[in-house]
Write a structure and sequence with these properties.
Elements (H helix, E strand, L loop, with lengths): L1 H6 L4 E8 L3 E3 L12 H12 L1 E7 H10 L11 H12 L1 E5 L11 E4 L4 H9 L4 E5 L2 H9 L5 E7 L7 E2 L10 E8 L5 E7 L3
Parallel strand pairs: 1-6, 1-7, 3-4, 3-6, 4-5
Antiparallel strand pairs: 2-8, 7-10, 9-10
């Protein structure tokens, strides 16, 4: 049994809200099209409960770091949201950025460049899965380097026409296998993919 345990690597999982036409946000970063229902909230809780490390680019990191640390003390949010916030706040966080001066959110580490050997070593460390939230530039770079094990795309029934695309700029096509799908009451569809090479 011990041998099996050692071979089980931590997975790097991308999770993101995305429009039907492939955008993470509108042209000016708008996210007002996002729909969250109770089942989607549970999806988020389950995902962070199966992980112990979060990876961000600068923009997503600053957005998360600007809001989640204060949620547990906010009397107007639900206990479920407070619990989710406490989990995020306690997790290890890695932010890849050449321009960010410091990363002050609890348990955050600022890294200047993506080194594939270091990511591969991190996947071999004992622990739970590693989650990338949004962060198009990081998703693109990790996709090009073959570092992503699973894509979990929460496709919203919204067409923006323009905005910030998830996969713009990848170096070569990525062939994916559909693992499964999930329908949410809001009309959002969860699409779960793994690279064919995995």
């Amino acid at each position: 049994m011990k041998g099996l345990k050692e071979k089980s690597l931590r997975k790097i999982i991308v999770t993101t809200w995305i429009t039907l036409d492939g955008f993470l946000a509108g042209p000016n970063g708008e996210m007002n099209w996002v729909m969250v229902d109770q089942e989607m909230g549970q999806y988020e809780v389950d995902l962070v409960s199966s992980a112990d490390t979060l990876i961000f680019g600068r923009v997503t990191y600053e957005s998360f770091a600007g809001s989640w640390p204060h949620v547990p003390e906010n009397p107007s949010v639900s206990e479920g949201e407070k619990e989710y916030a406490r989990k995020l706040n306690s997790m290890r966080k890695i932010v890849f950025s050449k321009s960010l001066e410091k990363a002050e959110w609890n348990n955050s580490q600022l890294v200047r460049e993506i080194l594939p050997n270091e990511i591969a070593s991190m996947k071999q460390e004992p622990g739970q899965d590693i989650v990338i939230y949004g962060s198009a530039s990081i998703v693109q770079a990790f996709t090009d380097l073959g570092l992503i094990d699973e894509y979990q795309l929460l496709v919203h029934p919204v067409v923006l026409g323009s905005g910030k695309p998830l996969f713009a700029g990848i170096a070569k096509p990525a062939q994916l296998n559909l693992l499964h799908t999930k329908s949410f009451p809001s009309g959002v569809i969860g699409l779960y993919y793994a690279p064919q090479s995995k």
